[in-house]
Amino acid sequence: MSSIKLNINGKEIKLPVIKGTENEHGINITQLRKETGYITLDPGYANTGACVSNITFIDGEKGILRYRGYPIEQLAGKVSFTDTAFLLLNGEFPNISEKNYFSKKLRQHANIHEDMKRFFDGFPLNAHPMATLSSMVTALSAFHPESESEDEEIIELNIIKILAKVKTIAAYSYRKFNGLPFIYPDQELNYVENFLHMMFSDSQEEFHADPVLVDALNLLLILHADHEQNCSTSTVRLAGSSKSNVFGAISSGISALWGPLHGGANQAVIEMLKKIRNDNSDYKKYVQMAKDKKSSFRLMGFGHRVYKNYDPRAKIIKSAADKVLQKLKINDPLLDIAKELEQIALEDEYFVQRGLYPNVDFYSGIIYRAMGIPTNMFTVMFALGRLPGWLAHWKEMLNSPDFKINRPRQIYNGHKKRNLK
Ligand code: ACO
Hints:
About 50% of the residues lie in helices and about 5% in strands. Strand 4 (about 55-60) and strand 5 form a beta hairpin. The termini are far apart. It is mainly alpha-helical. Acetyl coenzyme *A (ACO) binds near residues 262 and 301.
């Protein structure tokens, strides 16, 4: 193992260099404070690796995203979301018997406890579905008290329970909001069909999932399934590192995802596009506002901490949006506005210089809209997709030989000691 020498105040220490399989280099500073008294300071963690992970690889400069080694372009539209979830969680795609078992368990655990249905009555009708989702996921821990067990079988079962039940909670919050009866999951349907069934079925009629919607949703869920150490995944790891139960850790991730700088951007994009349309589609004004440092306005769905080249997920979603709308015979003026806005921004020096491109959230809302999913549920859809990633990272962290409670340090810059008078 190579190392880097660091000289601090005349004291030389050797810091080991960690090299990843894709040739990424990191300096291991775990002994830095012990040996020198210094810590590192990196607000926003842009230069800080919090763990070594085998799950997802991103090269932001080249626009590369791979799950367990598989390029996202090879997975999108070619495999199922549940197979992708299995891959992220276990490292390999399932064989036939693993696939059947996983699918059977997901179907078996899709119902939530009957008493939990009453919880939906306690939320105001206009509650944001992300508020409902994060509360209900925490509440699952009350109904599954074995959630703190470190028994491997129970851990695996809890992972299945979360994957299976969160989509039911999401669909129920939609039904409640719309004054519609809850539709129980159907054991005959696969994961994506079941979600659409619970969302959109008419309780009086047999449900037939539109294959265009099933394929589109399957694609979107896969594209959102993991993205290494983003804000919500790091939150899940941080919360889980106290050995909090898995439902609580995932609920923390849901709350982190909700913010408009992260997963909440998909809702913010559609709201922004609607605003632009109501403002005579004056794109230039909005691009100008985004560049104005006195304004807090940003082009939502643009920019990314890691991708300084095009986000590969956005590329796939953009072309899928065209196809899905065409197949559904929908003409959405917001898609035209989005494309125009992208074009103007990509030719603007401000965006070019800073490497600001559309991210995953820029076009996804256009497809959700076409599917009949309300704008305030877009981030819930993101959460459904991201569950396998959160769970895979949570599991990886607990099994890591380096496992430790996550506890960053700080540089204190407040009052020096003072005494009460
Ligand atoms: N519109 C206008 N300017 C932007 C934008 C934007 N969307 N994004 C970044 N910039 C500018 C910043 O003002 C900054 O300019 P400066 O160097 O002149 O000060 C520069 O680009 C770098 O931006 P930072 O905020 O430092 O980049 P950071 O990596 O911290 O933030 C983020 C990334 C949060 C995604 C940011 O680009 C943003 O706010 N985008 C809009 C919200 C969004 O779409 N979020 C979803 C991200 S994808 C996801 O989480 C699923």
